[in-house]
Amino acid sequence: MDIQIFQYHPLIGFHFIPDLQTRIQHESGGYLLRTNNAGFRSERDFVLEKNPDTFRILLFGDSFTAGDGVGNKYRFGDVLESLIPGVEVYNFGLPGTGTDQQYLVYREIAAKFEHDLVVIAVQVENIRRVASRFRMSQLASGEKALLAKPYFEFDESGALSLKGVPVQNTPIRPEELTEDEQGYVDQGGRLLWLRQAINKVGGQVKEVVQRVSKYQPLPEYDDPKGNEWTLMKAILKKWIDECEKPVIVMPVPLYHYVEQTASADSYRARFAELADIDGVTLHDPLSDCLSVSKAERRAFRFETDIHPTPSHHRLLAESLSRPVRKKLEDLSGE
Amino acid sequence: MNPTILGISAFYHDSAAAITRGSEIIAAAQEERFSRTKHDPRFPSNAINYCLSEAFIEPDELDAVVFYDHPLLTLDRVLKTIIATAPDSLAQWRKAGRSILGSKLFIEEYVRKALGTSIKLYFAEHHASHAASAFFPSPFREAAILTFDGVGEWATTTLGIGKGNRIKMLKEIDFPHSLGLLYSAFTYFCGFKVNSGEYKLMGLAPYGKPVYADVIRDNLIDVKSNGSFRLNMEFFGYLDSDRMTNKKFESLFGGPARSPESRITRREMDLAASIQKVTEEIVLKVASYLRDLTGLPDLVMAGGVALNCVANGLLQRKGIFERIWIQPAAGDAGGSLGAALLTAHHRLGVERNIAGDNGDSQSGSFLGPAFSSVQVRAFLDRGEYPYSVVSDSGERSNLIAAALADGKVVGLFNGRMEFGPRSLGARSILGDPRRPETQATMNLKIKYRESFRPFAPSTLREKAAEYFELDVESPYMLLVAPVRQERRLAENGPPDEGAEDLLAIVNTPRSEIPAVTHVDYSARVQTVDRKYNAAFYDVIAAFEESTGVPVVVNTSFNVRGEPIVCTPQDAYRCFMRTEIDMLVLEDCVLLKTEQPRSDDDDSWKQEYELD
User: Fold this and answer.
1) What topology is assigned to B373-607 in CATH?
2) What is the pTM of this model?
3) Interface of A with B in 59-78 (CB under 8 A)
4) ipTM, 2 dp
5) Which of A271, B241, B346, B502 has the most Cβ atoms closer than 10 angstroms to its Cβ?
């Protein structure tokens, strides 16, 4: 049975249905999913004012942050809370979103919640999503269809301009798109037909093909002046500039980088450019990921689902806990 | 200690899962509702997922997982039967062997895969699961227990006693002597599907005369005074072939079995009446013996035969027992619940918490998934389906009642889905029982069938006796009762003995509520208690307010061959494929006249195998 778990939002595109309590079937056996009254995966409702004794973090990201494949308590945001007493994490992660939509979540919903720190967990594939206007999604009926998303473009003055809002509510059939629009569909990567064929064959073949072909999943990071990175960087800069509190940007690696079948040099170089922005701390967890054995790294994802397993979430939380502790120390020093 | 236990039934028919905490039933559901395959026998991954979702626990937090049947004992029965009937039974072996060796024996592997964790799996015995499903949720501290079904391991009929948190089996009748299989043999012979068409045979019985009852008694079954029985296997095919009956059976009843979907003749009507009569006699005899054996005034029942609501109604009226409680999921689906409760009480020593106020622990059998108004609206908004929100429940009830009084057909989707084969007001299609045309309209335009069976009435609990000769509650639609004499229409009596046009017969008004009155003036009554389903109760009350009649037609929310709807998506799909006029999804009201044209052509009708 396909349960409808998302609700339309005219600006962001969608968020979780509020106050939902369900279990999602998954190759791991399934996982529990609870949402709060704001429509985000959380064991508690978000409140505007924080307790003076707590250090509240607003956390943003996509399905890696929202926790596809694992129960709420296993997500790195929730594990981070358990690692540092007094830390409270409000997880605004939304599966399938790009950094553009996550910025809109911050601006429209999250910013009003009193906080001490913003953590933007940029799953590196998001660079492709910010450049897209439509995304293939699975509907509650089980059918696949395109859903429109909001997006940013540079206007004549070079400023970011929000487009595609209010977001079209109804699903779109691919043939309804114009030729121009078809170029803005996020297919989840290049060479869709080849990936689908290889995925059908199975995991081992896929890994061998990727290794032999030296498959690089995200060439969009290769060119520092490329359209996708320029847009991504501008969105992140705008977001960071609007934050009144410190920001940690954490690029979350795909498994290709964790398992070293692809080079992370390009994306690491691009994100390093952000370190110069005032008020931002760049935290790259890839080194921590690479510090464990090959077998442990393979266990960071499921058999076929590439989302982080509980062990990967734990490592991300432990990695992120270092800059967070530093922020706490800075705060107590003030 | 409140252990959480997952019960599973699977691999025969009507797979299901149930979850209990302490003595409380948290959730129970049949796999077919999620998979959309009627009577789905496959491992109930979806139903298990739902149960864990409702309990909101991880699999490793479960205290036990239990299967409702013992595969090794079943294997023992199959092997011994094959040896005894070889070589004729090889075809049967190929069929049964696949099911038993291919699935049941590897149940632990299925469970590990579905749960993603290793957890000890317990096995309960089939009839003990049925007995537990009947006794533990019942309102009785102690009661006699009676289970009848086709077969489970070896037993086909068991008599027992329940007291506190224990049940004890006292007597049993073993395979191949089975009242369930006897009834199924006639179901098959009359051209209906075994394990699903038995209720059709029961519905056909009032058209016939029990002229074959003596033939059955003299040739097919030897019934002792205590109700115990033995079948004469010379007339049955299920031991050594994949058919229920054989040539000798055909000779006894004047020729071969009726072909499915062909015209029903006087022979099938009389056969139905005859086997129904013999079944009732056996049920009454066994019940009398059980009453004497236990000395207890209360009876609980389960097993597929306990869904024979005509026999149940007769048993009730005979007064052999003072009170009767029947598990609403009496078939194999309910075995999942019984297995979980049996493990809780017997293995883990959980004390039984008997519901007060004479109520049971079945929660109206509303044990399936519910969908919030926000979820419903999210679905409707995504599809841009026109709807209006009527938040005030009183206003909503009046709106539905007015539509019904105006002859409209309403799909009602409200709260948690029912566990068991009957729609009880959570996933129901409603109509006006006063209109003679309701019967034909709902059958032809909604169910897409020509049925000789009338629909069932749902009535307010406290008003039931005004329309039916029924002095007890029937919350699960498991008792058939006569329509009161004063409500009957004098001009239309029982059908002529020679009449064979069933549709003409059933469409002849016989009471003030013709759409729910069978040809023998009987009705399969549901009494509705506001405590368990306020929204449905209020609809009936509002209908009474506007029409003076506290009764509505209640039929399952599906088309023929389709499992009852589970989700808002299922309900909307069924709404659009049929001529239901109004759909009420929680507080959202949809009118057919306002909906966009459906892209569906008639090809969807091939999706469902005819039942």
Assistant:
1) DHBP synthase (3.90.870)
2) 0.92
3) 71
4) 0.88
5) A271
